[in-house]
Amino acid sequence: MPEVIINGLIEGGKATNGPPFGPALGPMGVNIGTIVAEINKETKDFEGMKVPVKVIVDSVTKKYKVEIGAPPTSALILKEINAPKGSKSKEESAGNITIEQVRKIAKSKETRLYGDERSKIKQVIGTCKSMGVKCEGKDPKEMLRMIDAGEVKV
User: Which of 50, 100, 101 is closest to 80 using CA atoms?
Assistant: First the structure.
């Protein structure tokens, strides 16, 4: 079965018949509008974020499959704290995230992060650290120390 795989990065809910999918799918004889509609339906929850999308087309039967990847952890954090970007300086915070929001992000990235739930939560908090985002009003390093010490249950 000769499959053709087309990868693209699109803004959630805003795929069009244009690049990257339209020009690649056009010569294959598939219904581009139907595929774009499915992509938009499946990515609408990621509005405002770039989402990796893979379209796999069987060039003989014209059947297709759409696979939606997960946005970067940093984009999910920014969405949760409602901020346009992270902080560049150590003195300035880009925002604050709750442990429940961290848990939600870790759950949504379940297949992309490694380890058990605790490890995944720590990975998300590590990303908060690099972005200048506080966790429960504390420096992410302090929150990680508290998790390791058993002071914060996750």
Answer: 101
Question: Is 89 in contact with 130 (CB distance < 8 Å)?
Answer: no
In this predicted model, which residue has the larger pLDDT, 108 or 1?
108
Measured between alpha carbons, how far is 154 from 45 in angstroms, rounded to an integer?
26
Tell me the whole-structure pTM to 2 decimals: 0.72
Considering only CA atoms, give the Rg of the chain: 19
Domain range holding 47? 3-68
Q: How far apart are CA 14 and CA 115, in angstroms?
A: 33
Q: Is residue 119 part of a domain?
A: yes
Do 77 and 64 belong to one domain?
A: no
Rounded Cα distance between 28 and 118, Å, is 45
Q: What is the pLDDT of residues 105-151, one digit of tens each?
A: 999 888 788 899 999 999 999 999 999 999 999 999 999 999 999 99
